[in-house]
Amino acid sequence: MHLHLGNDLKEILNQNFVFITLVNFMVMLGDYQFFTTGAFFAVKELHSTISEAGIAAGLFVVGS
Known about the structure:
Layout: H1 5-12, H2 15-44, H3 50-63
Helix pairs in contact: 2-3
């Protein structure tokens, strides 16, 4: 059995695949940024307790 990896990669790494991968990366980057700063924002700006901020961050993770 002989594998033609060059042809298979050309079929997989087409323009649509690269575009969808980049869009997915940007969406997940925004999701991660919101998660990491959401609890800090809740404590500093909304004057919530650390427990409330943690619950909000946890619910965001479960919801997303």
